[in-house]
Amino acid sequence: MGIFDGMLGHASEIDATKLEADFGNILGGGEKIEHAYRVLRDLVVFTNKRLVFVNKQGVTGKKVEYHTIPYKSISHFSVETTGHFDMDAELKIWISGVEEPFQRDFSKNRDVIDIQKALATYVLK
Question: I want to staple 92 with a disulfide (CB 3.0 to 4.6 A). Which of 11, 53, 67, 101 is the partner?
Fold first, then answer.
């Protein structure tokens, strides 16, 4: 996957070591980035302790939302792939004590499947 895939919304795995400096101010003691995926300007980051959805906002992307979900709080998750008429794939994560799931949409099946596979690795330990 190259830059063209990223422009089309395809998730592409990125080198976790390249993000260490950017995430230094939000990582806890002993926490390290193990996997990361870029979807357009946003990131899905798997650390050894939590899942972080990074949403870059605005024209410049200077405003950033970091949405953290500790693995231990995930009760279950689901993936819905694209169809003939529904072109968005969905990832839903249910968090203990929260009725509505956390949801993210993806443009392609391969995006959501790669991220679901990484999520299964961490949640189902």
Answer: 101
